[in-house]
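Ticket #253: bound-state structure for zinc ion.
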Amino acid sequence: MRVTLLGTGTSQGVPVIGCTCEVCRSVDYRDKRLRVSVHLQVGGKSIIIDTGPDFRQQVLRERIKTLDALVFTHEHKDHTAGLDDIRAYNFSQHKDMPIYAEERVLGQLKKEFAYIFSDYKYPGIPKVQLHPIDNQPFEVEGVPFIPIRVMHYKLPVYGYRVGDFTYITDANYISEEEKEKVRGSKVIVLNALRQEPHISHFSLQEAINLLEELQPEKAYLTHISHLLGQHREVEPQLPDFIRLGYDGLQIDL
Ligand SMILES: [Zn+2]
Ligand SMILES: [Zn+2]
Ligand SMILES: [Zn+2]
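RESOLUTION: The complex was predicted; output attached.
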């Protein structure tokens, strides 16, 4: 299985428009963070979790020629805004795109992309096939996924475990029961927004505490804000098994 971090930035991305802080001015490629998304190559399938506003740029950069399915964590715009660009795969693969998400998220996609779901469809719009999920294991085109319920302030969001890999973004709370599903993962990708506490995201220290408790072999942080600091300055302060994610990072497991 190969995991590629397509984006590792918070909702505004890094650099932030108009900001002149040292992170936003950094020339280090690891400080250029598109909105969060991850590509999984597993069981012969190509699957992406979340299609943020940078989706098109990300799949071009990684030369993702085929896409078998999309899975969504939640409905926030930084995770869904790029959905229109799946049209390219509809055209090249001659089929509808399977989308897996919970009912609430599918409902929000129907509102925000009303034209995709209208009765009279304009030619050339995205074609999708909706698969509602709940907090039970499910298969994405034959690949087993285990949903992990986490809280994003008051919004319930799903993280996912696929084999030995767990991906959790936009969370600041996970119950003991849900932690059990994560335990034993070799690799965890977890959100860590910034140094200071935040109402809906883990801070750096909160993410480190949780990862030390869960004990994966390796962990990578994502959904990073310019307030976290420069990659080269923050990473050396982390425990060895925890690294900062960066756009384009590939993890083989
Ligand atoms: Zn987000
Ligand atoms: Zn900045
Ligand atoms: Zn969010």
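RESOLUTION NOTES: Residues 204-214 form the longest helix (11 residues).
TICKET STATUS: resolved
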